[in-house]
Amino acid sequence: MIYEYPIHPVNLANNYLEYGLNLRDDLIEQIEFICPRCRHGSDEGIVQAPLKLGHIFKKEEGFVLEGFFVCSNVDCNCTYPVLNGVPIILKDIKGWWHSEKAKLSVIRCDSPEIKEYFNGLSHSEPSSHAERSLISSYMDLHYGTLEDLNIPFASRVDPRQFWEKAIAIGKPNRGEIYCHSLDLGCSVGRYTFELARFSELAIGMDLKFNTVSRAALFHRTQKISYEQRKHGQCFEETETTYTPSQNVLFLVADALDPPFRAETFDLVAALNLIDNVKLPLVLIGQMDALLKQGGSLILGAPYEWQTEICEPKEWLETDDMDSPEMIQRILEGRLFPRMGITYEILEDIFDIPWLMRYHHRHWSLFLLHLLKARKRVIKI
């Protein structure tokens, strides 16, 4: 396998209260996070240490809002914060914080221990306008409708076209249901909610605290409303009729270092993510590792490779081969066979319109490739 160490599961059960995922007292014992900092391979196998909720500083109506998870390995003893009920379990939290702090909205915490922790990571005042605009675009992308667009070319780029195809491609065989499904790069949660309609549990995961927070808020309140950017600094409160599913969980974690055990999921999806990670080939390897044999993998992207995100040598394309063809060959085991990946391509759809709205005079249209493949069963 191409990943440096296996990935390990946690039994997640979280709800959201006031801009955060909340850990309920009756569910904490079901959660087994693995410390990403001291996890490594050895001659005896994989060394892994579970995290324990060692410190609770703020609780409200049975929910843990602020505290720390502590590594059970006495030689490590690393801590991971719970901020506004959101566990942040990343190998490099300081690096994540330095990249995310200016994007975050208001950081709410009452306990001096949590304040001291984030001050120690060099907190600075957030710049909210750019993040408000980005969240508005994400929300329109996930939950906007044709009626919201009110533009001459709307009928050609109705966002429902994409969601209809993405939902259809994600469905299991007739009469079946997924036990666990995973939405990597879930953003504000639309596809996670859709996967939950034919899963016992759907998990949404993203590195962006602001987007995951909103997805979890929708889960708790069963209502979706957001600030839609009209122009400049003018935002207008918008409410949709979309009803979120109940059987979902959201968390902040890294798709290239996911906190789950291998072969945990029946379906793993990544929409608009593979061209937004530093190592796209590693992402495919991790998705494969997360999937059970016979499980389904879904990828969707316009392959808008960007040098500030991913070095050109890592792009999954060449002068003679475009991204859809290369990814298909990788999944079928015809490229990089040492990865041990073998899939059967089930569906391969091209040029699905995907409209990104920035404000009423600024739009971007992408044509997405959507692929579904089944992980082959290895007979021993």
Structural summary, described in words:
With 380 residues, the protein is an alpha+beta fold. The chain has 2 domains: 14-126, no CATH class; 129-375, Vaccinia Virus protein VP39 (Rossmann fold). Helix content is 23%, strand content 32%. The chain is built from 9 helices and 17 strands. The chain has helices spanning 93-100, 112-120, 128-143, 146-149, 160-170, 190-196, 209-221, 280-290, 323-331; strands spanning 14-16, 21-24, 40-42, 45-47, 51-60, 63-71, 79-83, 86-87, 178-184, 199-206, 225-231, 234-239, 248-252, 265-271, 291-301, 343-359, 362-375. The strands form 4 sheets. A 7-stranded mixed sheet has the order 13-10-9-14-15-17-16. Strands 1, 2, 5, 6, 7 and 8 form a 6-stranded antiparallel sheet that branches. Strand 14 (265-271), helix 8 (280-290) and strand 15 form a beta-alpha-beta unit. The chain is globular, with a radius of gyration of 21 Å. The two termini are 18 Å apart.
